[in-house]
Amino acid sequence: MAKKLVYFFGGGKAEGRTEMKQVLGGKGANLAEMTHIGLPVPPGFTIVTEVCDLYYKGGRKWPAGLAEQIDRNIIRLEKVMGQTLGDPRDPLLVSVRSGAAVSMPGMMDTVLNLGLNEQAVQGLIRKTGNERFAWDAYRRFINMYGDVVMGVAHEHFEAEMTRIKEARGVQLDTDLSADDLKQLCRAYMGVYQKHVKKPFPTDPRKQLAGAVNAVITSWNGDRAVKYRQLNHITGLLGTAVNVQTMVFGNMGDTSGTGVCFTRDPASGENVFYGEFLMNAQGEDVVAGIRTPLPIAELDNYLPRCYRELVEIKGRLERHYRDVQDFEFTIQEGTLYILQTRTGKRTAAAAVKIAVDMVAEKLIGKTEAVCRVEPAMLDHLLHPMLAASPGAAAGKVCFTAEEAEHMHERGEPVLLVRHETSPEDIGGMAAARGILTSTGGMTSHAAVVARGMGKTCIAGCGELRINYRNKTVTAGGTTVGEHEWLSIDGTTGEVMLGSVPTVEPTLSGDFATLMKWADGFRTIGVRTNADTPHDAKVARDFGAEGIGLTRTEHMFFEGDRIWAVREMIMAEDEDARRTALAKLMPMQREDFEGIFTAMDGLPVTIRLLDPPLHEFLPQDDATQSEMAERLGVDVEAVRTKVEQQHEMNPMLGFRGCRLSIVYPEIAEMQVRAIMEAACNVKKRGVKVHPEIMVPLIGTAKEIEVLAEAVHRVAKEAIKAKGVRVAYMVGTMIEIPRAALVADRIAETAEFFSFGTNDLTQMTFGYSRDDVGSFVPKYIKQEILSRDPFQALDQEGVGQLVEMAIRKGRATRKDLKVGICGEHGGEPSSVEFCHRVGMNYVSCSPFRVPIARLAAAQAAIADLPPARRRAARKTKGAKKAKKIKKTTKARKAVRKKKPAAKK
Ligand code: ADP
Ligand code: MG
Ligand code: MG
User: Fold this and answer.
1) How many angstroms does the Cα of residue 360 sit away from the middle of ligand 1?
2) Among 842, 797, 850, 799, CA closest to 819
């Protein structure tokens, strides 16, 4: 039998289901599902996504069997509807809609009112008795077909519209009469023929073929391609094509159309949320041309429809067990549902909804933890406007282009537009916040912004935007291009300047969700922190220790740099030791602060890592100052600076190499660490120092240095008379270290993957210079992601896996973690979990992200049957039981982070 390429829905039955998104696209799968559960969905059929793929592969031709299958489904549709395409008495009209497996709002094309021609429009008049409506539908169709299918720019049609409005002396489309619209249809036909140079297709089947191809082609349109790039959407076959019976929201005062959310997508509150327009077609709401009314007001216009809509809202949410974003149209008092999908929501809403739905017994804790995308939490973890989350401040830009420009220059951008269109996505991605004067919460701007996690105020009616003068005015105040504005997406306030922000905290629903996440997580989460303040912030966010303290930052503080420079200038060991002795007490004090802040938790401290030249002044003035302070000749300083110069400093005299050549540097640092540990222990602080040697490439290096570390540590312990347990380990950041990890583990008690350097050296990309080519690589899909952001699991990941395997072959209980930037990036955290690391370590603000990503990785590991069981409402309890029986690697989790109130 030929392959099934078309799936029917209608008459209470559907061939597809919601699980078939890959085949039918999200829109098609859900139209089928809604038909199945008895919602009023206009009947139609869906052409599978694979057709899109086959179309391109086959040189822009339909695959075998498609034409026949479409024909058969049209006949079936005509039967269900009791109407026929092109019928001069009662024509069947359809829409042709796109819809991929992953929702791409507004990025692809739709054709409405298909099936009209000179005879059919007469049929429509006869059927509806509404001449004005029929001509309006026809002119919209000619316009859309010309624009979407044949590529005639919309403005050519718009010009005719303007001409006739001026001739009649009217402002609005709705002021035009039936005759005017009829005349407009003639004018539109003229535009069509002039630009296409072929007559308008009158055969509805030809129209349909053209529209199907146009929708398929829009899959590879600029907007769609860019959207997929920005959202890392890959591996899809293409778009499905939905052909669906038209219903009309523009048939008069008992008709309308709208878009709703089952809950407020900005705050997450459980209130019916949405907007509608009376006497309008769907496009009008989404395009943000007329500002719609809040959904509750529908009760005043069509109370029966409103009640039905509220009832359907409840059914949708109970059925899908998640917030739905759905479209409806009312045709002369009859309600139809045209689309539903999982509602995009802000980070704050995602957290609230997940926690609320557990309380409502709609979902279990397992599912709640999986409902929030870890990366989204970022928005809750940055400084925000004092009043509320979801705010943004930036410099005003009036075009998407300018926004992208400014963003490239590293400027914070606030994009201000009348409305946004799908062409603007690049600029929207570049902006911190988006502000529009028309449209509502369901307009393109709002939907896309929410998807991107951007702050957005859509439809701020008081704004007067003047694109020509590049100004925006409200309440008598005018702001020009590149001036600061702040917006608060939650309250809808627009504020002058850059409004002050406060540090975020982990509390309420957010804390609850994180506590649940910790119940599933098996990998530890630590932080990278160099100061007691950062350590404390991270601890409040749930960090279970420090995975990396960089000691070099301490060298720059205050007057210390002069002692460091003195050390570098020193001609012999004695002089070096004298300089280092000045640094010692200061370092010790730093460590005491950090140990105290991390009372009870492990702290990994890395010995000096950067090349020495980074501490020397490069400018004349500071060089002179240095000469004066150290009592040497300025020439000597210059010579020293020149001597320290290296061709490839990242591959030069740095890391453990410094401590091998100048053992006294490491000795001073180890003494400072251990004396600090002893001192705080005397005060009752529980310390677990882990001394980490950077940039090891050979087993001998770590042997030599570990020996020195142990010697100094023992001396310090003896002198202080307190016993402090400590560990000595290494970073694995040079590919060779991964290769000989078994040998290194003979000495090292722990490994910490420095994946920044490891990525740099594995790829051979200087991490400070990737800006010149990596963006291009990503665009051309040579790389799928920037490997410095998301760990390259295919290549670098192999080294990591091998090093862990080899290391543990030598030392069974080898403690393994990661301290590169990747430690807070969700896909990398998942990888670290999978390869059996004990912990990940990341910057303080990413700790909650890592905790959630780690929990999701652990949940994905649950056996499928149990995961299904856990999905039921009481699932979280079961999941906990399972976890106890699996061998969780909890060694590093000495203490559960307390939920902060
Ligand atoms: P998008 O994916 O951009 O939302 P849609 O396929 O949903 O595109 O269509 C765009 C608009 O046209 C929506 O407002 C939708 O409700 C409306 N629409 C699509 N099909 C029909 C139909 N059969 N009857 C009435 N309106 C429709
Ligand atoms: Mg839609
Ligand atoms: Mg490094």
Assistant:
1) 32
2) 842
Judged against a pLDDT cut of 60, whether residue 162 lies above it is answered with yes
pLDDT digit string, tens, across residues 656-695: 999 999 999 999 999 999 999 999 999 999 999 999 999 9
Would residue 379 show up in a list of annotated catalytic residues for this protein? no
Does residue 106 have its Cβ closer than 6 Å to ligand 1?
Answer: yes
Burial class (CB in 10 A: 0-12, 13-18, 19+), 813: exposed
Q: Which amino acid is at 235?
A: G
CB distance 549 to 603 below 8 Å: yes
> In which element (H, E) is residue 861 found?
helix 847-861
Rg (CA), the chain: 33
State the closest ligand 1 atom to the C-alpha of 248, by its place in the atom list counted from 1. 25
Closest ligand 1 atom to 247 CA: 24
Out of 36, 379, 444, 688, pick the active-site residue.
Answer: 444
Per-position DSSP letters for 472-487, written without gaps between them: EEETTEEEETT-EEEE
DSSP 493: E
* Residues, the chain: 901
3-state secondary structure of 291: coil
For residue 244, which atom of ligand 1 is closest to its CA?
Answer: 23
Question: Quick one: angle between helices 663-682 and 699-720, nearest 10?
Answer: 40
Cα distance from N-terminal residue to C-terminal residue, the chain: 63
Give pLDDT tens digits for 616-665: 988 898 899 999 999 999 999 999 999 989 988 889 999 999 999 999 99
Provide the strand spans (E) within 625-714.
Answer: 688-693
Secondary structure of residue 795 in the 3-state scheme = coil
Mind listing the pLDDT tens digit for each residue in 469-519? 999 998 888 999 999 999 987 778 888 888 766 667 788 999 999 999 999
Question: Which residues have a beta carbon within 5 Å of ligand 2, which is an ion?
Answer: 339
Task: Return the closest-CA partner of residue 375 out of 843, 825, 854.
Answer: 825
The answer to whether 796 touches 787, Cβ cutoff 8 Å, is: yes
Q: Is the CB of 442 under 6 A from ligand 1?
A: no
Asked if residue 114 lies in contact with residue 207, where contact means CB atoms within 8 angstroms, the answer is: yes
Alpha-carbon gap, residue 472 to 470, rounded angstroms: 7
Q: Which of 260, 305, 678, 819 is catalytic?
A: 819
Q: What angle do CA 551, 552, 558 make, to 5 degrees?
A: 105
Residue whose CB lies within 8 A of the most ligand 1 atoms, among 108, 339, 442, 444, for a mutation test: 339
pLDDT-derived band of residue 900, with 50, 70 and 90 as boundaries? very low
CB atoms within 10 A of CB 430: 22
Q: Is 407 a catalytic residue?
A: no
Minimum-distance ligand to the CA of 695? 3
User: Residue 609: nearest ligand to its CA?
Assistant: 3
Compute the C-alpha angle 510/523/539, nearest 5°. Answer: 50
Confidence of residue 286 (pLDDT cuts 50, 70, 90): low
What's the token pair of residue 606? 């890395």
Helix-helix angle 864-871:875-885, to 10 degrees = 150
Distance 101 CA to ligand 1 centre (A): 17
For 181, half-sphere exposure in the C-beta direction (CA atoms, 13 angstrom radius) is 22
pLDDT at 283: 73
Whole-structure pTM value: 0.81
- Residue 719: CB atoms within 10 Å: 12
Mutation choice for ligand 1 from 9, 27, 110, 285, CB with most ligand atoms inside 8 A: 110
Where do runs of H (alpha helix) occur along 549-662? 552-556, 560-569, 573-597, 620-630, 634-644, 656-661
Angle at which helices 347-359 and 508-520 cross, to 10°: 70
Is the Cβ atom of 814 under 6 angstroms away from ligand 1? no
* C-alpha 654 – ligand 3 centre gap (Å): 10
Q: How far apart (Å, rounded) are the C-alpha atoms in residues 260 and 255? A: 16
Nearest to 644 by CA among 609, 608, 610, 613: 613
